[in-house]
């Protein structure tokens, strides 16, 4: 778990730099296309950093982060988290320098993609589609479209450069290069001209796709090593992430693409992947709920589960949230409203898939298999503030909350007269036992056990309930196999 105060302090200095100024089109793109993905606070942080650059200046003076806190009206923790969003989506690069006076940060603002780049980007376009829905997504895309000119109706009259300008004589070129002009034309290696990055993209550092396995499964007679350029490799990793494709499946798709095409670029590969997805999954866009827990945050990533608790953790880490809801519904299709809840947990609350699985199970078992969005948002906000990233942390927090609720229910049940005088306790039986199957006499026995002993027994209670849950999972899988 990363604490912001280990990375950033209010007294830390920073400067802002950019290679270009935003045009009106860029501001429109940031507001309409990027803001739905990064949120209003991250958008405000970007514009605030940009405002530190005075007119015709590309490097700001030095400030401290406390001034940024005052300008935004947000805590340093919020600024740190929103800064990470800008970095992840390609709008900001952050550099750090340490000296005797402390830390100094350089925030280099990056240009937003053009609308064409954004809507053709396999990652951001899908995220925006899931965020806005089909209707508004299409309306927004139409806003950035132009009608093609019917070229057959017009004759181009544009003059070429050599039709207007005369070339320099050879003697002039030689004399200029030997004179002071040659030195003026030379660009200092320590400086860079202001430019617009036309090939900006979202970077990936994910280890979820096994590229080594992918390469070993390729036939060299169909796909030579020289064909796997950096452009193709980047496209493969990005497409595998968005469309949830395993290495062996991706190998088959790439080979089919090379069989039908002599030379393959990322655009052709993208179309082939989309065709494969439509055949395999139908016409629905890839759902965010099909993601599984990131490998770097898995406890059971590099070992086999040995205990019941480890098997539970492994189940949550390797099961997509949508699949979990299908299991809990005995294979029935997940309702659209529930899909939106999962996407909100990922996009709004930034929870990881395994943590979402624990949260969903916690609420389903405590609310008679119903998903209340209000309750989901309340618990998700709490877990997000607690920076829960692993399944084990989520399980411990859920069990703690359930134990606290049970103790509250027992206390309210011990004093019926007091509760009868006033209003009924609104929390009584509000949260029934989560995945617990203890009998009433076991509850009474536990009520007499000291609190320290209860804490020691919590994992055992959780193991027992999860064991029943996994048994249901096995039965549902066996039922599907028989059918």
UniProtKB/TrEMBL annotation:
Which InterPro entries does the entry link to? DnaB/C_C, WHD_DnaB
| Basic and acidic residues: bias regions | 426-447, 464-483
* Ranges where the Replicative helicase loading/DNA remodeling protein DnaB N-terminal winged helix domain occurs: 10-274
UniProt domain DnaB/C C-terminal: residue ranges: 338-396
| Regions of compositional bias (Polar residues) in chain numbering | 402-412
Top-level taxon in the UniProt lineage: Bacteria
Q: Which Pfam family is one of this chain's hits?
A: WHD_DnaB
Q: Where is this region: Disordered?
A: 402-483
Protein family per UniProt: Belongs to the DnaB/DnaD family.
Q: What is this protein called?
A: Replication initiation and membrane attachment family protein
Taxonomic classification, please? Answer: Bacteria, Bacillati, Bacillota, Bacilli, Bacillales
């Amino acid at each position: 778990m990363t604490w912001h105060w280990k990375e950033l302090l209010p007294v830390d200095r920073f400067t802002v730099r950019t290679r270009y100024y935003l045009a009106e089109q860029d501001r429109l793109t940031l507001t309409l296309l990027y803001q739905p993905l990064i949120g209003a606070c991250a958008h405000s942080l970007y514009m605030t950093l940009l405002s530190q650059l005075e007119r015709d200046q590309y490097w700001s003076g030095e400030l401290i982060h406390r001034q940024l806190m005052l300008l935004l009206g947000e805590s340093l923790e919020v600024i740190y988290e929103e800064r990470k969003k800008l970095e992840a989506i390609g709008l900001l690069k952050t550099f750090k320098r340490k000296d005797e006076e402390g830390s100094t940060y350089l925030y280099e603002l990056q240009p937003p993609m053009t609308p064409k780049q954004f809507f053709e980007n396999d990652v951001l376009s899908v995220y925006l589609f899931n965020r806005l829905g089909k209707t508004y997504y299409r309306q927004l895309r139409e806003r950035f479209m132009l009608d093609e000119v019917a070229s057959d109706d017009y004759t181009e009259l544009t003059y070429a450069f050599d039709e207007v300008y005369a070339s320099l004589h050879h003697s002039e070129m030689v004399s200029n290069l030997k004179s002071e002009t040659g030195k003026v034309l030379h660009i200092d290696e320590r400086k860079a001209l202001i430019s617009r990055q036309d090939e900006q993209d979202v970077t990936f550092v994910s280890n979820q796709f096994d590229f080594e396995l992918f390469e070993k499964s390729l036939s060299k007679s169909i796909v030579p090593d020289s064909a796997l350029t950096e452009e193709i490799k980047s496209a493969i990793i990005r497409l595998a992430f968005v469309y949830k494709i395993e290495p062996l499946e991706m190998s088959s798709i790439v080979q089919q693409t090379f069989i039908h095409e002599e030379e393959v670029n990322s655009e052709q590969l993208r179309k082939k992947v989309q065709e494969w997805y439509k055949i395999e999954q139908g016409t629905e866009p890839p759902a965010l709920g099909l993601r599984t827990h990131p490998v770097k945050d898995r406890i059971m990533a590099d070992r086999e589960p040995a205990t019941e608790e480890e098997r539970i953790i492994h189940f949550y880490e390797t099961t997509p949230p949508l699949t979990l809801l299908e299991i809990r519904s005995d294979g029935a299709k997940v309702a659209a409203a529930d899909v939106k809840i999962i996407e909100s947990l990922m996009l709004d609350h930034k929870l990881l898939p395994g943590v979402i699985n624990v949260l969903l199970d916690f609420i389903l078992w405590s609310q008679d298999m119903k998903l209340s969005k209000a309750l989901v948002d309340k618990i998700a906000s709490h877990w997000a503030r607690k920076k829960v990233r692993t399944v084990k942390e989520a399980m411990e927090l859920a069990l703690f909350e359930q134990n606290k609720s049970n103790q509250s229910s027992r206390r309210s049940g011990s004093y019926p007269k007091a509760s009868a005088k006033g209003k009924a306790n609104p929390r009584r039986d509000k949260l029934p036992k989560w995945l617990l199957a203890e009998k009433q006499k076991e509850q009474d026995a536990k009520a007499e056990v000291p609190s320290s002993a209860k804490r020691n027994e919590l994992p055992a209670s959780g193991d027992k309930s999860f064991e029943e849950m996994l048994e249901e999972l096995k039965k549902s899988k066996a039922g599907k196999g028989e059918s």
